[in-house]
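Dear colleague,

Thank you for sharing your sequence with our group. We've completed the structure prediction you requested, and as agreed, I am returning the results in plain text so they can be pasted directly into your records. Please verify that the sequence below matches your submission; if there's any discrepancy, let me know and we will rerun it promptly.
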Amino acid sequence: MGRIASTLRTAAPAFSDSGLLIDPATDRWADWGLLGAPDPDRVKTVDKQRDFGEFILRAFPSFQFSRFSELLIDLLQQVADGELTRLIVCCPPRAGKSALVSRLFPAYWVSRHPQLFCAIASYSAELAYAHSREARHYYRSTGHALSKDSAAVGNWLTPQRGGCIAAGVRGPFTGKGYNLGIIDDPYKGPEDAKSSLQRERLIDWLKSVWFTRAEPGQSSDGHWLPAAQVVVQTRWDHQDMIAWLLAQEGHGPEGGEHPEHWTVLNLPAIAEPISIARPIPSTCPRVQDWRQPGEALCPERVPLEVLKRIRTRLGSYWWNALYQQRPSPAEGLLFRKAWIQAPLPVALGQPRRYAPLVLSCDLSFKDGKDNDACGFALLGLLEPQRHLAVAARRQGLALAANAAGAQGSPKGVNSIHPPAGAQDPWAELQIEALWAHRQRLDLPGVIKFLLASLASLDRQGLRPHAVLIEDAANGPAVCQLLRRQVPGLIAITPKGSKASRAHAVAPLVEAGQVRFQRRSDSLIEELLAFSPRGGIDDQVDAFTQGVLWIEAQYWRGRGHSSAPLPMVFSR
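Please find the predicted structure tokens below.
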């Protein structure tokens, strides 16, 4: 048998007369087609392949190494060695991240730990299987054996009963455990990433299936390896899975107590100053970018000139998300961050007076995951201090000379002749967003929430003068039920699309005529992420409805014009 084996190892790849498979590169079982005749050289090969870079050279000789790939290879080596257990990789398309993380690395990891399991998940089973197929190929081409009883693409095993399993996200991982979990591109495209329903389904799957399958395991040298997670994703949306994972690290109702300490490799296509990068929690180490601002990530693959052309073709929104890994840029999309301002201070000792105070509602009446949430925004038009003379002139009246001492005039202030340069106080309207909220509610829940909210506001001295409900879908049903219980309820007929209403309000926010109190932070987040292409917009819709109603009703109600006038002339 030894002579036969020696002859077969040196022969050219071919089939012998007896039909035995004798090509070492394609012999899946590592026994030259002879049961119980393992190749001792392959065991030595496994022992020598302790370095991921060397494994890549054997498995994929034409692989193009770069500074980026070397950095990623080093991080993955730490994962294989058990030194790093949580890794997030965010980089632009076509940077070669999937080839390294989801194809070559699983093959190397299983060769290092043949008694343990690696799991690969992607947005579809087909893509996960494609990664697993390539990983199996690299594993076999470097001289490692497969188990005779299981070599399927989606579930291949080693003789030591470890191996690799693959499935789509939300796929059949139940009943299977893994020691290394790799998620590569969990979203099929922008529609999935921007769909609140798809995002919530993915998070539910992570919580109930994916994370519960992870388990530690004992390596071949007898050491225990903690369960490791590697997530690879091109950013699509500011509320995608990466954002959720990082949010769990911070302070809040769902995170902060037991951080996972994700190591974050977040590299834009064109290097930027660190001040522009999206912040990450303090518990997460950030891998430093070695480049100077303006340098390309992988000029060998995509030169800087090509990236600039891509940037021009995509526009700032998709460029910042897909290529710079900054979804929903820090300056916002339609509504810019620089426009968001805190309320103006009022005179000392004087309460904030609103005329009017409005609760605007964007309602949905089903609490299922397939339905939109309800949005609420409390808005007030801040009533300014007024000069009597200016008010009189607006109404075509003339005041007597002794009107300066009329009751109600501040002592020592001449209300007939205001200070030089004084303008009509109503010329600079200030709308304040006092509070905003978003929640899924059915019809009874909507009614209960509205009544409870109004009662709470009343106790705070903030009774709304009007409650606006969109007169569409089931809005009339709520109006009919609440008309006798809620004073000031008004049904609003929407005009134009949500995007057109947002565009109408944007100049007011830009001009500083709409300001935001602290309890409206959730609204600010939606405004900065708002895109005419879609996404979460429930609070934005309630907000724009309320602002436009205040604008129109204020001018009509004061009798200044038969038609509503804009609060600003232009941008």
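Summary note from our side: The chain has 17 helices and 16 strands.

Kind regards,
the structure core
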